[in-house]
Model the fold of this input.
Amino acid sequence: MKGATMLPKISVSRRCGAILANVQRYRMLISDELSEELSQLAHELRDVRICHLNSTAFGGGVAELLSRYLPMLQALDLSADWRLIHGQPEFFTVTKAFHNALQGGHYALGETEQKLYLEVNERSAEALGDDYDVYIVHDPQPAALRHFTGPRHAKWIWRCHIDSSSPDKQVSGFLLPYLEEYDAVVFTMSEFLLPGLRAQRAAFIAPAIDPLATKNMELSQDLCRRAIADSGVDPSKPLLVQVSRFDPWKDPLGVIEAYRLVKKEIPDVQLALIGAMAGDDPEGWALLDRVEEEASGDPNMFVFTNLAGVGSMEVNVFQRGCDVVIQKSLREGFGLVVSEAFWKEKAVVAGQAGGIPMQYPEGFEDNLVHSVEACAERIVHLLRHPGERGSFGRAGREHVRKNFLLPRLVRDELRLIKRLVG
Done:
């Protein structure tokens, strides 16, 4: 289709106006070399029109990342939009299964599911115009878009945010021909490269957090304590927090098991599980029900979601106000919540999965765990050694400052775009 793109466009400038107001605020946090390179790349790409495509505007890590990434591109005077593909609930049930299958889960992919997936992608492709020079397609939901657009001048990038190193062979075999039509593919790290993918160009770019976002901005400890108390949690007792989608790979039930083991050693410990329900994740609702059932009989266990008004500010409050952050992922793409916690100088006990080890400061890797028992053991140790907890958190913040802040991510992706457009 020629003309303007008709897919829904997400407006980010009103929600994220602060980043538009002053790009210079980042200069205190990043090196002069990075700042200068960003300015140069933005100047060289000022006439390139960029479109990011995914399946949801809220609830997931990709949506959260784009909500901060796009305003920074715009603040650099680049032309960048964010658009959503169309899809009904049945489509998202299939694509959630794809998501799990690419991370190693089994999925019996039938002709009906293939047909539905391709129909939605084809319909969305028909709504794409010719008003962009670069399309960046995120994760498996819209991965077949490139196939259905046909020949055109634009460059196409597929960005995979998950660990696809050991996928279900049936699902990966179905997707591979569509992915190989892209001009470039991007994975978080080389170990995540989809087996058998004959990519025209592959890049490995870790995601990043925005230190100026509501979720990460500085807050006083007094404010955090008062806000936590208002939620029903006792700020005078030890508090463990996991922030994640209600996804089996994030293992919230394993977190509850670890908490119960910790409770045998430290009886007044509390646990808060905080998550956002995403529009493209029907599986999450069933898991949320199970988690709430597990928590129902324990006055020291709390479950908070965006359904009850818990948003970025509340996540910030709980991460800053807790004693230990948990991220007990079994499989993970990157796990930005780890960098978020380290930025707040918090100790983190996490699963040794995906990109999580990349985020750990040197010397604290013994807090990466493989089991419920090890998770509980490290939590108890950190709760009993506040000095070590503090050193761990401070080292984590410095590691994130050097490696996992938003300007570095923007620089890396602009480098790739520059190579593609010549």
Q: What stands out?
A: Residues 221-403 form a domain with the Rossmann fold fold (CATH 3.40.50.2000). The chain has 15 helices and twelve strands.
